[in-house]
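In response to the reviewer comment on reproducibility (Comment 2.3), we provide here a single inverse folding case reported in full, input and output, so that an independent group could reproduce the run without further information from us. The structure tokens appear first.
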């Protein structure tokens, strides 16, 4: 009797498709990454800490982005598996990770 082997396939499922008012989607410096994270994910007003990834092509243009993990008010735990999953599925040549610290509220 032969041995059973599991055959699996992984597919990228688009959660949403939005159009943003961004004059260029190329990241050339850290300030660009911060600006895009603010425009796309509104990271400054989030009540909890988040960790996200921009997936880039060889020209440093954003080809995909995602929030990898949303944590609590003071922590965000991330596993490398989740960090690289969308990059691999998007065939990204590089990534930029971003993380916020929620605004202090009185």
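Designed residues, in position order:
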């Amino acid at each position: 009797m032969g041995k059973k082997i599991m055959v699996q396939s992984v597919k990228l499922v688009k959660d949403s498709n939005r159009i943003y008012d961004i004059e260029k989607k190329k990241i050339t410096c850290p300030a660009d990454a911060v600006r895009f994270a603010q425009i796309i994910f509104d990271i400054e007003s989030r009540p909890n800490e988040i960790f996200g990834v921009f997936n880039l092509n060889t020209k440093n243009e954003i080809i995909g982005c995602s929030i990898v993990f949303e944590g609590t008010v003071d922590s965000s735990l991330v596993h490398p598996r989740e960090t690289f999953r969308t990059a691999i599925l998007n065939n990204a040549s590089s990534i930029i990770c971003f993380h916020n610290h929620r605004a202090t509220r009185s």
